[in-house]
Amino acid sequence: MNTHNATQNATQQVAATFAGLSAPCCYEGRIESCVCGVDSDERALRAYNQGIDLPPMTATQREFCLKEISAVEGYDRADYTDATDGQLANGVLCAWMDSARDKGMA
Asked: 42-90: per-residue pLDDT in tens?
Protein backbone atom coordinates (compact mmCIF):
# COMPACT_ATOMS: atom_id res chain seq x y z
CA MET A 1 0.00 0.00 0.00
CA ASN A 2 1.29 3.45 -0.87
CA THR A 3 0.80 5.33 2.39
CA HIS A 4 1.88 8.59 0.79
CA ASN A 5 -1.07 8.56 -1.61
CA ALA A 6 -3.39 7.90 1.32
CA THR A 7 -2.41 11.16 2.98
CA GLN A 8 -1.77 13.69 0.23
CA ASN A 9 -3.67 16.41 2.11
CA ALA A 10 -0.53 18.41 2.88
CA THR A 11 1.70 17.29 0.03
CA GLN A 12 -0.09 18.13 -3.21
CA GLN A 13 2.11 21.17 -3.90
CA VAL A 14 5.43 19.45 -3.07
CA ALA A 15 4.86 15.99 -4.50
CA ALA A 16 8.42 15.67 -5.78
CA THR A 17 10.45 17.03 -2.88
CA PHE A 18 12.92 14.16 -3.16
CA ALA A 19 12.83 13.85 -6.98
CA GLY A 20 16.24 13.27 -8.46
CA LEU A 21 17.63 11.24 -5.57
CA SER A 22 18.80 7.83 -6.63
CA ALA A 23 16.95 5.82 -3.99
CA PRO A 24 16.30 2.15 -4.69
CA CYS A 25 12.75 0.89 -4.62
CA CYS A 26 13.46 -2.41 -2.93
CA TYR A 27 16.45 -3.28 -0.80
CA GLU A 28 18.45 -6.45 -1.06
CA GLY A 29 17.17 -8.85 1.56
CA ARG A 30 14.49 -6.40 2.71
CA ILE A 31 11.87 -6.50 -0.03
CA GLU A 32 9.16 -6.75 2.62
CA SER A 33 10.09 -3.29 3.86
CA CYS A 34 9.49 -1.56 0.54
CA VAL A 35 6.40 -1.18 -1.57
CA CYS A 36 7.55 -0.96 -5.18
CA GLY A 37 5.82 1.59 -7.33
CA VAL A 38 5.80 4.33 -4.69
CA ASP A 39 6.57 7.93 -5.62
CA SER A 40 10.00 9.51 -5.26
CA ASP A 41 9.22 11.06 -1.86
CA GLU A 42 8.18 7.81 -0.23
CA ARG A 43 10.98 5.84 -1.92
CA ALA A 44 13.58 8.32 -0.62
CA LEU A 45 12.07 8.36 2.88
CA ARG A 46 12.12 4.56 2.99
CA ALA A 47 15.77 4.61 1.92
CA TYR A 48 16.70 7.16 4.62
CA ASN A 49 14.75 5.06 7.15
CA GLN A 50 16.70 1.93 6.13
CA GLY A 51 20.05 3.70 6.41
CA ILE A 52 20.76 3.59 2.67
CA ASP A 53 23.63 5.94 1.82
CA LEU A 54 22.04 9.12 0.48
CA PRO A 55 23.11 12.77 0.62
CA PRO A 56 21.96 14.60 3.75
CA MET A 57 18.45 16.03 3.50
CA THR A 58 18.28 19.63 2.39
CA ALA A 59 16.55 22.28 4.50
CA THR A 60 13.60 22.11 2.07
CA GLN A 61 13.36 18.33 2.42
CA ARG A 62 13.53 18.51 6.21
CA GLU A 63 10.82 21.19 6.25
CA PHE A 64 8.65 18.98 4.03
CA CYS A 65 9.09 16.14 6.54
CA LEU A 66 8.30 18.33 9.53
CA LYS A 67 5.13 19.62 7.83
CA GLU A 68 4.05 16.06 7.03
CA ILE A 69 4.59 15.01 10.64
CA SER A 70 2.75 17.99 12.10
CA ALA A 71 -0.22 17.42 9.76
CA VAL A 72 -1.10 14.17 11.55
CA GLU A 73 -2.95 14.19 14.85
CA GLY A 74 -0.80 12.96 17.72
CA TYR A 75 2.49 13.96 16.12
CA ASP A 76 4.44 17.00 17.28
CA ARG A 77 6.85 18.75 14.95
CA ALA A 78 9.01 19.77 17.92
CA ASP A 79 9.75 16.11 18.66
CA TYR A 80 11.56 15.81 15.31
CA THR A 81 13.35 19.14 14.80
CA ASP A 82 16.70 17.72 15.98
CA ALA A 83 16.18 14.22 14.53
CA THR A 84 18.65 12.57 12.21
CA ASP A 85 17.56 12.15 8.60
CA GLY A 86 16.72 8.51 9.29
CA GLN A 87 14.69 9.36 12.38
CA LEU A 88 12.88 12.13 10.53
CA ALA A 89 12.07 9.81 7.63
CA ASN A 90 10.77 7.21 10.06
CA GLY A 91 8.59 9.83 11.71
CA VAL A 92 7.02 10.76 8.37
CA LEU A 93 6.41 7.14 7.38
CA CYS A 94 4.82 6.38 10.76
CA ALA A 95 2.68 9.52 10.60
CA TRP A 96 1.51 8.63 7.10
CA MET A 97 0.64 5.09 8.19
CA ASP A 98 -1.24 6.33 11.25
CA SER A 99 -3.17 8.78 9.07
CA ALA A 100 -4.05 6.00 6.64
CA ARG A 101 -5.19 3.78 9.53
CA ASP A 102 -7.30 6.61 10.95
CA LYS A 103 -9.02 6.88 7.57
CA GLY A 104 -9.56 3.12 7.33
CA MET A 105 -7.17 2.80 4.41
CA ALA A 106 -4.63 0.51 6.07
From this structure: 888 988 998 888 899 999 999 999 999 999 999 999 999 999 999 999 9
Query: What DSSP state is assigned to residue 37?
Result: T
Rounded Cα distance between 44 and 38, Å, is 10
pTM for this model (two decimals):
0.71
- Residue 85 φ/ψ region, left for φ over 0, alpha for ψ in the -120 to 50 degree band, beta for the rest: alpha
What DSSP element (H or E) covers 60?
helix 59-70
Distance (Å, rounded) from C-alpha 77 to C-alpha 54? 23
